[in-house]
Amino acid sequence: MCGMIEGLQKIGHEQAVIAGIDINDDRDCFPEEISFFPVIYNNEELPFPVVGMSDAMPYESTRYRDLDTYMVEIMKSEFKKKIDEAINVFKPHIIICNHLYLITSYVREIVKDIRVIGLCHGTCLRQLKSINFEKEYILSNIKELDLILALHNEQKEDIINLFDINHNKVVVIGSGYNDKMFYNENYKTNDRNINITFAGKICKSKGLKSLIKSIDKLEYTKDSIKLNIAGTGSDESQYKEIFNVSEDCRYEVDFLGRLSHKELANLFNKSNIFVLPSFYEGLPVVVLEALACGTDVIVSDINGVKEWMGESINNSGKISYIRLPKMKTTGVPLKSELPYFEEMLYRELDNRIRNILDNDECKSKLNMSDKTWNGLANRVNNILDKMV
Predict the structure, then answer these.
(1) Would residue 301 count as lying in a domain?
(2) Which residues contact 160 (CB under 8 A, 6 or more apart)?
(3) One domain, residues 213 and 237
(4) Which of 71, 110, 182, 375 falls between 20 and 30 A from 266, CA-CA?
């Protein structure tokens, strides 16, 4: 979202931001030209951690499924204070809300004379399908939004069916990455040691156990393969379960914790292969970031990703897709499906490694200008121009 804010600022839009943050979070997180109205969690008014859109977040969070009626009411109350303040001070022409969920529904309920757009990231749809939290309230209010922005066409169809709305109210905009931070630094790939990297939340739905098991099948010398896992997880039991699997892997597995964007870009540039074996995603920006750094990518065939990447990237030889296993519920695969998924992942890893070892070349570059923050902002700007 910060990338879209920066891109729209370059175009010339005046913007203000309302966001929930922890009492200890930095409040100087936007340029001074952008007004910030923070809703503070973990204080007297909201005495619990920030509510996360996924059950496992990379920071301390409250799950939506654990909110009671009182917690919902005080959260709405604190957001209303900031919404009223922002409207009085900033006087927006359009309000863009992240996630088709509780707070976006509440904004639509209380704001009647300003157009409200909802931006879907995918996790909101997963919550609606997996828990009954405020479901009817959310469905009825999201349906009344002026417009919904979707990541890809399959998500658009999902939104139309779930909320029973006209297809003209949903527009596909895709996603974007920061090309000033993530770019190819022309590292050579002739090192006989292979660095494989994952970046994201440390949780089971990311397919990390399957990734580690697939790497363990590789038949190379013990010191020639290394798996880097960048990210954190708030679910201690899931983290421990994944860590325990890594302990049995014949190759080194390095848990790096949370990295800054600069550190992550550096890691991608020094990595040979980036793997995202997730069982559920929206439209993962991290895939764009890895490709921009020239890194080969293996990703599970998540709905919409192949379509969004487009023919040029898909035919570049830089990215390959692993068929998803059948799911028990959203993001939870059937155990009987995992051996085949892990075998396919192992084979693709082995093919990529052999190809890298056989070539003494710099990483190839891709034209990804339409996938940048500026590209995303331009697409959103075209939509806003039609609404103002």
Answers:
(1) yes
(2) 166, 167, 170
(3) yes
(4) 375
List the CATH number of the domain containing 347: 3.40.50.2000
Q: Rounded to an integer, what distance in angstroms lies between the CA atom of residue 339 and that of residue 345?
A: 10
Enclosing domain of residue 325: 194-366
Residues 260 and 286 in one domain: yes
Q: Give the tens place of pLDDT for each residue, 260-286.
A: 999 999 999 999 999 999 998 878 999
Tell whether 248 and 354 lie within a shared domain.
yes
CA-CA distance, 155 to 297, in Å (whole number)? 22
Cut 0.85: pTM above it: no
Please give the pLDDT value at position 56.
77
Neighbouring residues of 211: CB distance < 8 A, sequence distance ≥ 6:
198, 227, 275, 277, 345
**Contact assessment for residue 257 and residue 181, using Cβ atoms and an 8 Å cutoff:** no
Q: Is the dihedral of CA 84, 90, 95, 100 positive or negative?
A: negative
Q: How many domains would you assign to the chain?
A: 2
Q: What angle do CA 268, 180, 265 make, to 5 degrees?
A: 15
**Residues 206, 331 within the same domain:** yes
218 in the same domain as 354: yes
Q: Any idea what the Cα angle at residue 57 is, between residues 56 and 58, rounded to 5°?
A: 130
Looking up tokens 């708030």, which residue turns up? Answer: 234
183 occurs within a structural domain: no
Q: What is the mean pLDDT of the chain?
A: 93
Q: Are residues 110 and 42 in the same domain?
A: yes
| Rounded CA separation 80/36 (Å) | 15
Residues of the chain with pLDDT under 50: none
